C-alpha cells in the first residue's frame, strides 16, 4: 500500500505544463518534455488505499486506481502497467484526454485536494512504452469466427483489440484515410501527439487485427453485404451528426463547423497540407460553444495566429466551489481553466469566454463574408434573451462547437442493416449491446439484425473517451458471447449505465 500518512505529508502538486509562450509556438503536447518523475511517485503516495475506493465508481472502466497508485509510489512500473492494462486498453489516451471524473470521486476530495490520478495514469502509460511493457498479445489459437468493426475511434479500437486477443479474426473499417477516428483528426496534436495512436495501431496489427481505411461502410461498401461476410458486426461510428445554429446569416462564408475546421489543422501536422485551407491567422475568431471541442478550437486558433478569439458559452459562469446540488462523488460543474483558456488568458490577460450568451445573427460584407456576430445575454435557466443586452463583436471566422446529436442520419447503415434510432437520436440497442430494428406490425418487441452490435457514442451519444473504451470492451464481451455461447472478456458497463449523478 501507499504511505498511510502520505496525504498528510504531501500537498497536491499536479505536473506543470510547459510555459504558455513556449507552447503557443509549436504543436507539441502541453506537457512535452516535462519531467513526470519523481513528482508523480510522490503524488501517488497521497492515495489513502480506501476501504471503498470511490474512484472506481467515478471511472466507467473500473480502473484499479489504488493498486497502480501503490506500485507507482514504489517505482514498480511493471506491476503498475499490469494493473492499468487489466482494465484499460489505451491508458495513454485516457491519461491525456479524459477529464478525470475519478479525481472528483476521490475520497480525499471530501475535504481536501484529490490525488493527481490523471498525472499518475499518464506517467504509468509512458513507462509502459519506455520500458517495453506493451508487447503484442496475439491469440494462442483462432476461433474460426470473423468480426467486422465499423469505425476506428476509441470504442472501435477497444472492441477490435479485445476480440482479436480472444481469437476472432477482426477487420476494422474506417472511412478516413488514416485509422483513429476523432482521435486522429478531431483531437489536436497539442492534446495528444499522434505517435501514441500510431504505436497502438502497430501493436494491434502485430496481434492480428486488420485495418481497411478509405472505406465508408454504407456508401462505398454495402453494410448488409459486410454482415454476410462476417459472423458478427460491431458498429462504432461515433456520434458525428453536428448540431446547427439556425440564425440569420448562417449562410455567410467564414462560418464553419468545428469538426470541419479541426481536421484541417491536424492534417497540416500530419504533413498533408503546407497550410490549412481554413485558418484563423490574422482574423477575429468567435467560437460558439463552451465545451471541450470549443476549447480545442481555441487552442488551435491561437497557434494559427488569430488576431483575437472569443468563446461564447450559453451556460452561466460556474462557481469555484462544488455546488450543494452536485455533492461528492459526482463530477461537479465548477469553474475550470483548460490549457487553451490559460493560453488565451496569458496573451490577452482575460478569460476568452463570454458566459450566459447566445448568438442572435451574423452580419456580412457585400461579398458574402461574415464580418460580425450579434450576441445577447441570456437568462440562466430559461435561456431567453435579456432585453437591451445585444451587442456586436467582430467575427471574421466563426467556429460552431455545439456538440453532436447522435450518428449521422443519412448513413446507409440505417437502411442497409434495418437499424432504428432511440428517443435521443442514437442507434437503438438492447441490454446486451445488440442493435434493434424497427418493431414489425403485431410484434411486442423490436427485432434487430442478427449479430450486429452497437458500441460507443453511436449508441450512447457523445461522451468521454473513457466511456468509449469501456463501451468497446463491454460490446466485445457481448459479441464474443454471441459467437461462442460464453465469454471470458470483461464487461465493465452496460448500455444503460450513466455517469454518477446526485
TrEMBL record:
InterPro entries: 4Fe4S_Fe-S-bd, DPD_II, FAD/NAD-bd_sf, FAD/NAD-binding_dom, Glut_synth_ssu1, Glutamate_Synthase, Helical_ferredxn. Pathway: Amino-acid biosynthesis. It comes from the Bacteria. Transmembrane segments: none annotated. The keyword Disulfide bond does not apply. The keyword Acetylation does not apply. This is Glutamate synthase subunit beta. It comes from Streptomyces mooreae.
